[in-house]
Here is the input.
Amino acid sequence: MCESCMELKKYLRYGHHEAIVTTVDSLGNINSAPMGIELVDDLIVLRPYMSSKTYSNLVSTKEATINITNDSKLYYYSLFTPQTLKYSQSKMVRPPRILGDVDLYIECVVTNVDDSSNPPLIYLRGLCCDLGSGCKLAYSRANSLVIEALVHYTKLPVLIREGNVDGVKRRVDIITYTYEVIERVGSEELKLIIRDILDKTFTIIKDLES
Here is the structure.
């Protein structure tokens, strides 16, 4: 691990963490996706679904920039309105950095892809780590629950394809719970976001039932 990345253990010390992973394809098209990450023996481990753009980009171009942030709006934008994201050039890899309230940028290269697991395991080595402008946000249940809702929302398409009805129901119940809490304690901005997530969730369910 590079010297500038030695403090990663401070940022990724609680096991599984959420981040936004930026990759590019062979033509330079940018893809940013919310994704769980974990630090294992000084390597960053991702578990993207094999059908995802993140997986195909990592396999083909073998580079990524990981954007560590607690700002739920950036997760929402990257998933539903990626065209609104703005970027700056990275130092050592092609995938750019997301501009905004990002705490840490980690520029990485792929060292190994393990397709034997489902989803696959992709191991990355940090080349460069830089502090961002920072989220500067006190702990907010509503903010954290928006991220939690998005995590479960992204699981729905795979569970539906697998025919996992119980898994779908559990995810919908969790998203509904986050909605109820955010409606009580969230800002108007976060209330609009969680309502949209809930609407999209029930649209998926209606399409499934039809």
Observations:
- Residues 141-162 form the longest helix (22 residues).
